[in-house]
Write a structure and sequence with these properties.
7-stranded mixed beta sheet, 5-stranded mixed beta sheet, 598 residues, binds zinc ion
Length: 598
């Protein structure tokens, strides 16, 4: 299939596409995916396609019909080539959709390129007619001589349709920076302003990439492209075979904390170039883009990648061991603060990504657990178990390498991760996997003892307390500790609107609902932050009189405060580590036990 894309109406957020299909049968069914690989939600891309028309090779119109939501049926092709012309509305700036405006065009192939099922394995070529002064950046290789026929623009070649939709295309006036890892060119394109300190960022990024390549023993590509979109809000990333699209808040990127998070995001997507893009669940090898694809293995692929996205920073020497433990403690705290972990199993979280993970609502924290979050914790524990079972001779690194070597071609069967882990560990891990993946029992955190750590629990000191750190010493002007402070179980969005109520919390028992708008406590005007402050000032058992609007009706409810849950986790070093624990720590974090101690 040969495409020509052009942008005569940037301000209408439209891309014009002409798709030339080779001679086939009497009828051509051209189809568009309903989802894009890596983002498990049916997005119905065809809803943004308009003004589709079909022509024969002499330019005569052919009848076009729409038998279903994603099919464009051309009758009377008569075994000759068919040309489809259509426009796609692209006005969603995210990592998994397309965005076209006066500043640039980001094309996600799954939302733009129609193909035919019979042609999926055939090469697909794209001629991009960039507006004057704009250039094209994509992981797709450019055709050497610009291809046959006339017309301007560079031609890019995808070996098949899956490669086409796995290669984002950025068109705009951007600059392209590059660096090398193991001799392979890596490019960075930034949209939405300059990335502050970009040169230092690239140096750090190169070290992270080198660490990942070291784990996998080389780089299976000839060029990698980081596309970074700086925005006022929103963040995320989507992995591609030879590149990634990342969204990150512009203001945050200028801070040290934001820099660490951005590096971690880039490390995450980069790690996927192996772990998802060169070995994936069999259910996604190749993906069926016409409907949902179900696998219970996303915990291993996303959770595993989430584990390594921070661990790689530590291994590259960009994060101190204590900082790494704080980050890990924050992850454990996030899981402990999610009531849904007691409701949904990890395998169900993975299978139901299509209707849960990607379609969150106010009830999600109470009813579901993220396969990223719990998956990461399970992968940390699995790593420690493998290390313990092999006296630190093997690790999760070996499991990942085995998965790639064994299942790179045909994908990992549903039991494949468990089998590979047991093989590397040389131990029976079935009880661990059963509990972690197929029950809602609390995870057993005792494997941290292998590296001289102990997971401890404490109450949070406020809504901004993300855990990961030891309890703070008593604050000035306050007697006692967190146990003497009241707790409601409410969260807010905006000024005073309840965004979530923790399952079983005092607020839920008192009958406060999501979307209630708090206006006063004990007869005095306040907002959400004020109510939470009152909770901190008062003690468990005290009763707040909460005045609120619910669907425009003024209500007053008594809210008896409860005790804070002990859901913040921190990792404490054991007081007298054995030599084996010190050695295991060093093997795990690449630093001496004594470094950064105390
Ligand atoms: Zn990921």
């Amino acid at each position: 299939v040969e495409y020509r894309v052009s942008f005569p109406r940037l301000h209408a957020h439209l891309v014009d596409v002409e798709a030339r299909f080779p001679a086939g049968g009497e009828v051509l069914d051209a189809v568009l995916p309903v989802w894009t690989p890596g983002s498990y939600l049916v997005r119905e891309f065809a809803r943004q396609v308009q003004e589709a028309a079909a022509f024969d090779d002499a330019g005569r119109p052919l009848p076009l019909s729409r038998p279903d939501k994603r099919t464009f049926r051309v009758a009377g092709a008569g075994g000759r080539p068919v040309t489809l012309r259509y426009r796609v509305y692209c006005n969603e700036l995210s990592v998994r959709t397309s965005h076209v405006d006066g500043s640039h065009a980001l094309l996600n192939g799954a939302s733009v390129f129609l193909t035919a099922d019979a042609l999926r394995a055939a090469p697909h070529r794209v001629r991009v007619e960039a507006p004057d002064g704009w250039r094209v950046s994509t992981p797709l290789p450019a055709e050497a001589d610009g291809g046959e026929g006339g017309g301007g623009g560079e031609v890019y070649v995808a070996a098949d349709y899956d490669a086409l939709v796995d290669a984002p295309i950025e068109v705009g006036p951007h600059a392209r920076r590059s660096f090398r890892v193991l001799g392979v060119e890596h490019q960075l394109v930034v949209w939405g302003g300059e990335l502050p300190g970009v040169e230092a960022f690239l140096e750090d990024l190169a070290r992270v990439c080198a660490e990942a390549a070291r784990l996998y023993g080389g780089l299976p590509l000839t060029r990698y492209l980081f596309l970074l979109y700086l925005t006022d809000r929103g963040r995320g990333g989507l992995e591609h075979r030879d590149g990634t699209v990342m969204l990150f808040p512009r203001a945050l990127a200028a801070t040290a904390k934001g820099r660490e998070e951005l590096l971690s995001l880039a490390a995450h997507e980069y790690f996927h170039l192996w772990h998802v893009k060169r070995v994936a669940p069999r259910a996604l090898t190749p993906p069926d883009l016409s409907r949902e694809n179900y696998t219970a293995l996303l915990w291993a692929f996303e959770g595993g990648t989430a584990y390594y996205d921070t661990l790689l920073l530590r291994r590259a020497g960009l994060m101190r061991p204590e900082r790494y433990l704080t980050r890990l403690g924050e992850t454990l705290s996030q899981l402990q603060g999610t009531p849904g972990r007691r409701v949904q199993t990890l395998e169900d979280s993975s299978r139901l990504a299509w209707v849960k993970q990607y379609r969150p609502d106010e009830h999600s924290p109470n009813s579901a657990v993220s396969y990223y979050l719990k998956g990461e914790v399970v992968c940390v524990l699995l790593d420690l178990l493998v290390r313990r079972a092999t006296r630190d001779a093997r690790s999760l690194d070996d499991v990942l390498r085995l998965l790639l070597a064994r299942h790179g071609e045909d994908g990992v069967p549903e039991g494949g991760v468990e089998a590979a882990a047991a093989e590397v560990a040389g131990a029976d891990l079935a009880p661990f996997f059963h509990r972690a993946l197929r029950t809602t029992e609390e995870l057993d955190l005792s494997p941290f003892a292998h590296v001289g750590l102990e997971a401890r629990l404490r109450p949070r000191s406020g809504t901004s307390d993300r855990g990961g750190t030891p309890p703070r010493a008593g604050r000035e002007g306050r007697e006692g500790d967190e146990a003497s402070r009241g707790w409601s179980g409410l969260s807010f969005r905006g000024e005073a609107t309840v965004s979530a109520v923790v399952d079983g919390s005092p607020a839920m028992e008192a009958g406060l609902y999501t979307d209630d708008e708090v206006v006063a406590v004990d007869g005095w005007r306040t907002d959400g932050a004020g109510l939470l402050a009152r909770c901190e000032e008062r003690a468990p058992g005290d009763v707040l009189r909460v005045t609120l609007f619910r669907r425009d009706r003024l209500l007053e409810l008594p809210l008896p405060l409860g005790e804070k849950p002990h859901d913040a986790v921190w990792l404490a070093r054991v007081e007298r580590p054995t030599e084996a624990q010190k050695a295991a720590w060093e093997a795990w974090l690449g630093a001496r036990w004594e470094d950064g101690e105390g």
